[in-house]
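Researcher: We're teaching a course module on how sequence relates to structure. For the next exercise, students receive a sequence and then see the predicted structure as tokens, so they can try to spot secondary structure elements on their own. Here is the exercise chain.
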Amino acid sequence: MKTLTLFRTYLFLAFVSVSFLVSAQANAEFPGLDQSPADILYLRTARGVPPLAKVVYGRPSLKGRPVFTDAENALAPLGKVWRTGANEATEITLFKDAKVAGKSLKAGTYVVHTIPGKSEWTIIFNSKLHVWGAYEYDESKDVLRINVPASSGANSVEAFSMNFKPGSSENTYHLVMGWGTTRVEVPFTF
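Model: And here is the predicted structure for the students to work with:
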């Protein structure tokens, strides 16, 4: 009789515990959408073919704020290392060795920092991964630095955006970055 009572007690406690866990999961709170949502961009040459590259980045919005200027409140000030997006620093994964603006870069994952300039940007591929912003930027971990021209687009882009477009020669693609009216293209050859 004592064993039966003990068994019923354990069974009751197990039932209460499971009920509590199910109830807690059902009532879990989820945060709203991030103000600068993350996005993933793949460079694929055809459907069903493995990608050549993947970019993971945050997409901040202008919301009337200045960008790529000398203003104190600029979202990405000229001449300063920028995370190239929002939140965590932008990461690019190359699935094959590539040339970036004619310079070799091995397959692998890199953080992409940039230094915006009025007419030219410095693009930095850095090996220190999983960093938030540019606060942990370590120049000694730079794998490659290149300079590319900056230009202006006809239309203003509200949310920082990236896309790949085909280049002028075979196996060449440009990673295009745009925000506001600023446009930057980084050439890759695979």
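Model: If you want an answer key for the exercise: The chain has a mean pLDDT of 90. The first strand starts at residue 38 and ends at 43.
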